[in-house]
Amino acid sequence: MSEGRPTTDVKPWADPNATPFLQIKNVTKKFGAFTAVDNVSLDIYKGEIFCLLGGSGCGKSTLLRMLSGFETPTSGQIIVDGQDQAGIPPYARPTNMMFQSYALFPHMTVEKNIAYGLKRDGLPKNEIATRVTDMLSLVQMDQFAARKPHQLSGGQRQRVALARSLVKKPKLLMLDEPLGALDKKLREETQFELIKIQESLGVTFVVVTHDQEEAMTLSSRIGVMTAGQIVQTGTPHEIYEYPQSRFVADFIGSVNIFDGRVIEDGKDHVVISSKELGADIFVPHGISGVEGQKLAVAVRPEKVRISKSNLSDLRNKVTGTIDEIAYMGNSSVFQVRLDSGKRVRVTQSNLTRDNDDLTWDDRVFVGWADDAGVVVAS
Amino acid sequence: MSAAPDTGPSSRLPGGPMIGRVLERLGLGGRGLVIAIPTLWLLLFFLIPFLVVAKISLSEAAIARPPYLPVWEWVDGVLSVNLNFGNYLFLLEDPLYLSAYIESIKIAGISTFIALLIGYPMAYLIARSPENQRNLLLMLVVLPFWTSFLLRVYAWIGFLKANGIINNFLMWTGIIDEPLIMLQTDFAVYIGIVYSYLPFMILPLYANLVKLDQSYLEASADLGARPATTFLTVTLPLSASGIIAGCMLVFIPAVGEFVIPALLGGPDTLMIGRVLWDEFFSNRDWPIASAVAIVMLFVLVIPIMLLRKAQSADEGAS
Known about the structure:
The complex is a heterodimer of chains A (378) and B (318).
Chain A: E1 22-31, E2 34-44, E3 49-53, H1 60-68, E4 75-80, E5 83-84, E6 95-98, H2 110-120, H3 125-138, H4 154-166, E7 172-176, H5 184-201, E8 204-209, H6 212-218, E9 221-226, E10 229-234, H7 236-241, H8 246-251, E11 256-265, E12 270-274, E13 279-283, E14 294-299, E15 305-307, E16 316-327, E17 331-338, E18 343-349, E19 363-368, E20 374-377
Parallel strand pairs in A: 3-8, 3-9, 6-7, 7-8
Antiparallel strand pairs in A: 1-2, 1-4, 4-5, 9-10, 11-12, 11-14, 12-13, 14-20, 15-19, 16-17, 16-19, 17-18
Chain B: H1 16-25, H2 30-57, E1 72-75, E2 78-81, H3 86-93, H4 95-128, H5 131-142, H6 149-160, H7 165-173, H8 186-209, H9 214-222, H10 227-238, H11 240-255, H12 259-264, H13 272-282, H14 286-317
Helix pairs in contact in B: 2-14, 3-14, 4-8, 4-11, 8-11, 9-10, 11-14, 13-14
């Protein structure tokens, strides 16, 4: 989903000799008896846009607040550019944060808001002026310098907040739901602008979001969080195509999951018998499991094929009846009720303009290629 | 077709369509009525008394009942109007009045400032305390109002007098050998005013500070501001309207305060409230007393206008 991004070609996380820019080591945060962040370890490299993705209450915001110093870890270590952040108050950290609510000072103009951080550093007046002007033009807010925040639209406030957090050239910029307050169309435009700005400045971004689409488009890597833990870290492609758990598969995009039991554990293949599917599933690689083990196979809707004719080239296929069809323009989504009773979601691209050979209550074959499914713990 | 005639909004008023129509003719719809009640209140209890006092201030004192000469008289078809501006000129001539005004403003101003210094941290702490404790703390601030104001000021006499609680305690500990003179000084007046009006400072400040978004403070810290800088550049400017409201609520009544300087102040504590009382009850010079009151009102109009301006600026910003 992040095609055309030059930074994705560089993968510092794959290089064992690369030094991480931000190291989170076994960080735990407890509020009373509640563990908000549970023993999280994470390495983030220079120039990355790293997204912490998770539902509300998963601990992603608490983790971010610990990075900026607003919360103190109960245990564990946070190291930025080789420097342990323990005991350093927020105002002395080399990081900046863009707040979810933007937190623009309502009694100051756009210009004064952006200059605020530079003034605190005691920079000379003319340098402050130059840097504020540069920042204003970077976020295309030149004409609004004299406005107060309440005279701006949501998108404009977002730009000012970004400018204010970037003007101090932080080593690390934390963004808390940076696009959450924008409407869909504006969000899509802003996403690409954010990436452009990040690339031009070379600042490392840590983004917190609950929006998986936002995470997919923005990030070089994603850390999926739930219940205070990071359950999987990887590129958007890895997270989407190779989810390591049922939770990740289910959380990112939509997915069909079939529970089953290993009945044949070969060296280069396994066969999983699934009552839910009403058939055996062939997996073309070995797994570290034993015969009889309970497992599940996850298949993305767009990798499932649907046809009235027997899908003779596929090993994994069953029959069913079309329950629902949702026409989305570029694609159609089918809900197929299998003979086993399970409902399966199938997405098909509308390659031709009139693609109406499939209709409600048609008997169809659904199936997927051997390597389309992913085995996850059940 | 026997559709009911459209009686308009008057039919919705209580008292049936008849009264409604009469009120409507007077320009009073449902909305007008709501505004009319406070307007009437102000007219009856503020504007008319003000005009009466203004009239007396322009008359001449006399040994009579009431103790002043009428401002206008109707004798044999001749209306004679006697406007006596001498009372106002007299206020200018006698330095007693001018110094009483200045003293009142000084005492009220200093008291307001002290109340702000004490009230701001209290309001801030209440606003920052856990939500379930705030109401209890606010209750404690308001609790003194359950006792009569007069009684509470009297109670301070017991604390401050020569053989009062404070002096007895200090002498018992051996810090002092002879009692401090605290009662009947300006010091006692400051204590009385600050003590009595402190809740009026805390409540508007609290209402303002509790709304202050914590993320502004975090953003300020994140951008490199130390807590003291954050307070001066973010918290203080954002609570300006609360500060002005609190200061006005203390300053305005403190200027005209009579009870506190009378009970706690000394003979040389010259506040305009006491001068007014003396003119009215001791000298029975109603016209001069009225003139003193009218001038005091104008002295207070300026801060009241400042208050209104601050309030409207606050509404505009949020």
